[in-house]
Amino acid sequence: MPVVVASDLDRTLIYSAAALALTMPDARAPRLLCVEVHESKPLSYMTETAAQLLTDLGDEALFVPTTTRTRKQYQRINLPGPPPAYAICANGGHLLVDGVSDEDWHARVQARLAEECAPLAEVQEHLLRTADPVWVRKHRIAEDLFAYLVVERELLPEEWVKELGEWAENRGWTVSLQGRKIYAVPKPLTKSAAMYEVARRSGAALTLAAGDSLLDADLLLAADQSWRPGHGELAEADWTAPAIRALPERGVLAGERILRELLRTVRAPR
């Protein structure tokens, strides 16, 4: 029976130049592989060692890329290893099967959102009305499911983020600040629900997960075993649980360590 490995991508397995955290002397920095190009420019990286580990993991387990990215943003990424049979995009709003969104799954997600939380239009209107153009660079709607802002982080008032979180909580939404992006996401829109669906379809005997942000917390709690890096929202909050291992590594070397841990667990006798 297969092992399902559902892992977040950005700042978990792949890293922008700003997130690499290469604190060692230049001559000792790891060799990097570019895995994403956007507008003809390199955007995301992993170490060459991590690339080989991911290839091995894809050969031995059902690896499921699990991301808050839209389908279009996800499809820019060129991960090493075999093409994933499943991928989770839009924080669980789309379940890709051999690269194509499963329409039945998406319809089920939309029905649940309509029942359980305030509409996207209300949240979008609130963001447009309260966010200051001084520190907002972009307003975006993702897949007609959730909203996010691209901001100047150093100008962003912490109090505004706190107030937005409280406002959203009362309407069945959650707020997550990741780098230069503030996400407003409906609470029923979860990575864990999509992971459970993959596990059900594949008959998985074991589920493993990894992630760094608040939007990954439900995924980490849902899996049999999980890992988080030493950076990100969850690390900043010192967040953990019994089946979750908090790793000390930060930046791109954390991605390498996570893949070592996942592959070791997949290969362990059960």
Describe this structure in words.
The protein is an alpha/beta fold and 270 residues long. It contains 9 helices and 14 strands. The protein has a 5-stranded parallel β-sheet, sandwiched between helices. A hairpin with a 3-residue loop joins strand 8 and strand 9 (146-151). Helix 1 (48-60) packs parallel to helix 9 (252-267). It is globular. The N and C termini lie close together (11 Å). The mean pLDDT is 96. InterPro entries: HAD-like_sf, HAD_sf, TPP-like. Keywords: Hydrolase. It comes from Streptomyces edwardsiae. GO terms for molecular function: hydrolase activity. This is HAD family hydrolase.
Features:
270 residues; five-stranded parallel beta sheet; four-stranded antiparallel beta sheet; 26% strand; HAD family hydrolase
Helices, by number, come to 9
* Arrangement of strands in the largest sheet: 4-1-12-13-14
**Low-pLDDT segments:** none
Structural class: alpha/beta
Radius of gyration: 18 Å
Output the helix-strand order: EEEHEHEEEHHEEHEEHEHEHEH
Largest sheet: 5 strands, parallel
Shape: globular
User: Alpha-carbon distance between the termini?
Assistant: 11 Å
Helix content: 25-40%
Q: What's the β-strand tally?
A: 14
Mean pLDDT level: 96
Beta-strand proportion: 25-35%
